[in-house]
Amino acid sequence: MSSLHYLQISGSHHEIGVQLGQFGAQAIHQKLLPSDTWQQLRKWLGSAELQHMKAQVQTHFPTIWEEIEGLAVGLQLSIDETFMWNCRGDLWAMAPDGCTTVQQATPSHRRITHNEDGDPSFYGHCAIVHATPTEDTAFVSFAYPGSIPGHTFATNVNQLVMTVNNIRSLDAKPGTPRMVLCRAILSQPSVEAAIRLLRSHVRSGAFHLSLCDAYSSIHSVEFNRADVSVEPIEHLGFHANHAIHAAQRDYPQIITGSSGYRQVQGERLLQDARTRPNSTVDALAILGNHEHDTYPIYRREANDSDNENTMATADFLFEGHNLIWSVYDGPSRAPLFSFTGLQRN
Asked: Reduced to 3 states, what is the DSSP secondary structure of residue 10?
């Protein structure tokens, strides 16, 4: 049995949400609701912060709000509970979201390779979702139970690729939830449009994004409440779960031992290749590295220090203007799914 489900859904935004909710309902009720994470988040139910963020989404992203309403129906939870879960990183800096990304740019190709790290209890309960919303942009995205798509790794029919890394901001304030902004990016035609969207809305929490499309370079984007920082990847890049851009790194954030050590290890593994222009690295091998006993890059330990495990690995490659990509359960294994654009091979 595969560790990842494959889910094809279509319809209105509300219908998309219902189908996502029905898929994730069992895991949410059995794994999340009894957890300490859920109890930590419940303190924000009915809060002014949550109500302010709800108003932002309803005003600026009404179709995504319809998706959240449908998600609540499918999950058999209240709308406020469902919305709270989709604001988890805006409300609580230690919500269990992780991830690690390697970025490569040479004259012949652009490549983004990504470990999706999350709550270990959801392993085996996640999906690769191929969604075709009515009168909106089709996309394929990794999806957690109970979550709107887009805050993990994804691409859309315009070949806009996005991978997302958690940043544990201590300066989050009520605004548009970061997961809603990433869901909105899945409807955008290009990297330029995605960055413009981020800059045009009041943001709440923080994320790092790797963005690329068929006609652009790879862009490393860090956003928080205060700013959106954009740096093009000219050769090799590595990013764990804290802000590293000069414009972002001094804002208050939590750098866990795992994130700090993964960043150090990644930079070390790229060091030799960085001295040789246009050279490449084996990104899957880097993301499969578990040399460090306590803080490995590839995370499958039951006692992970951040309570996160690697749920899947995605490898996106642009050869010219053509996107080919695969999803793995472990970087050293054969791919579970392979795609050309949105077409499953």
From this structure: strand
**φ, ψ dihedrals at 98, nearest 5°:** -125, -120
Three-class SS state of 34 = coil
The conformation of residue 302, written as its DSSP 8-state character, comes to: T
Strands of the sheet containing 335-340, edge to edge, are 236-239, 100-105, 109-118, 309-319, 322-328, 335-340, 343-344
3-state percent breakdown (helix, strand, coil) of the chain, nearest 5 = 30, 30, 40
The DSSP 8-state label assigned to residue 192 in this structure reads: H
Inform me whether the pLDDT recorded for 314 exceeds 70.
yes
3-state SS assignment for residue 159:
coil
CA 14/CA 207 separation, integer angstroms:
26
Spatial CA neighbour of 32 closest among 92, 80, 91, 77: 77
At 117 the three-state DSSP class reads strand
The H-assigned helical ranges of 124-275 are 178-185, 191-199, 257-274
| Residue ranges with strand state E in 134-275 | 139-143, 153-156, 161-169, 206-212, 219-223, 228-232, 236-239, 253-254
Q: For the purposes of burial, counting CB atoms within 10 Å of the CB of 89, is it exposed (0-12), middle (13-18) or buried (19 or more)? A: buried
Report the predicted TM-score, pTM, of the whole model to 2 decimal places.
0.97
CA dihedral 201, 207, 211, 217 (to 10 degrees): 100
Residue 2 pLDDT level (bands cut at 50, 70, 90): confident
- Residue 139's DSSP bridge partners are 131, 156
Give the whole-angstrom CA distance, residue 72 versus residue 81: 8
CA-closest candidate to residue 47, choices 90, 17, 6: 90
Instruction: Evaluate the CA torsion angle 239, 298, 104, 111 in order and state its sign.
Output: negative
| pLDDT confidence of residue 211 | 98
pLDDT at residue 1 in the model: 61
C-alpha–C-alpha distance, residues 293 and 56, integer Å: 43
Handedness of CA 339, 284, 222, 37 (dihedral sign): positive
